[in-house]
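Dear all,

This email documents one entry for the complex benchmark we are building for the journal club exercise. For each entry we list the sequence lines for every component of the assembly. Then comes the predicted three-dimensional structure of the complex as a C-alpha cell string, followed by one or two observations. Please use this as the template for your own entries, and keep the labels exactly as they appear.
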Amino acid sequence: MSIKKLVLLAIFTAIAVVVNILEMYIPIIPGTAFKIGFANIITLIVVFVYSPKEAIIVGLMRIFVAGLLGPSGFGPTFMLSLTGGVFSILTIVIVRMLDKFSLVGVSVMGSIMHVFGQILAARFIFAEVVTFYAPIMLFLSIPAGIFTGILANKFLAISKEWFVEKKY
Amino acid sequence: MTKKKKNDFLLIGVALILLGGLLIFSIATRVKGEIAYVKVSNQAVMQISLKDGSYVANNPSNVIVLTEKPEIDGFDLTTSSEVIPLEFGKTIVVYQNLFYVRGALGVVEIQYKENKIRVSKEKSPYNICSRQGYSDVAPIVCLPNFVTIEFSNDTDVIIG
C-alpha cells in the first residue's frame, strides 16, 4: 500500500467518524432517529476508487471509532449501528462487485439494507415494537440513498486526480 | 443513458413501489390505541388508559403513590422529605398524571395528558423519545433506556 493511499484512507476514515457523530445532532425529522447517512458517502467513494477490502476496513473502522468517541458509547444503539453498518457495507461491496448498477444504485441498495439491518437488530435485541417504524424508515431510505449516491458521484467527479498514483 | 443508469432507475422504481406499498398498507391498518403499555426491557410493567389516565400496575406492590411532585436525581427520585430509589423493571412511582420508571440511564418520566402519552423527561444521548412528544398511535421508544410505550386497544391483554 502506498503512503498516499494510506494517508487518503486514514483521512477518509477520520472524516466519516466526524460526519457520523455530527449527524446525530442534526435531526432531519425532529423527534426521530432518521438520518441521511452521510458517513456512507465515504464507504461508497472508497469502494469505487479502491476495492471492497478497503471499503470494508474504512467502514468498520468508522463504526467502531464513532462508537468509541460518540455520546452513546458501546450501548444498545451501538449494536444497531454495527448491524446496520455491516449490512450496508456488505451490500455495497457485493452490489459493486456485481457491476450492474452505477454509484446511485449501489447507494440505494446500501441505504435500504442499512435500515433493514438496524430494524432486525432492534427487533431481536430490544423489542418487537420497533417494527412499527420499519415501513416508514425503509421508504425514506430510498431518497436518502439517492441523495448520498449523487453526493458521492459529485465528489468523485471533482477528486479523480487525487487518487492517481504518480511515479516520482 | 448507459445500461447501469437504466438499472439504477429500474431498481429505484421497484423499491419505491414495493416499499411505498408497504408504507401505505402499514398506515392504512394503523389503529388508535386506547391503552398504553409501558414496558421496561420488553416486559410490561404497567398500563395506562388513554381515556382517563387511570393505571393498572403489573404488580401493585411495586407502586409508590406520591402526594408531592418529586425531582429526578439520576436513578432516584427525591421529595422534600425522602429519597426514593427505583428498581429497574419493577418500581413505578405515580404523582397525579406523571409516572416514573427506572430506565437503564436514569429515571424516565411519563406524562398523561388529554388522551395522549409522552415521555417528558429522560436521560439519553440524543433524547429522541422525549423529543417525539405526545402520541397515541406511534410507539414511543427510549432505546438507550430500554423503556418503550406501546399502544393497543385490546383491553383483554393480560400484562406480564
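Observations: Chain B touches chain A at residues 2, 4-5, 7-8, 11-12, 15-16, 19-20, 22-23, 25-27, 39, 42, 104, 125-126, 128, 131-133, 138-139, 141, 143-144, 146, 148, 150 (CB under 8 Å). The first strand of chain B starts at residue 35 and ends at 40.
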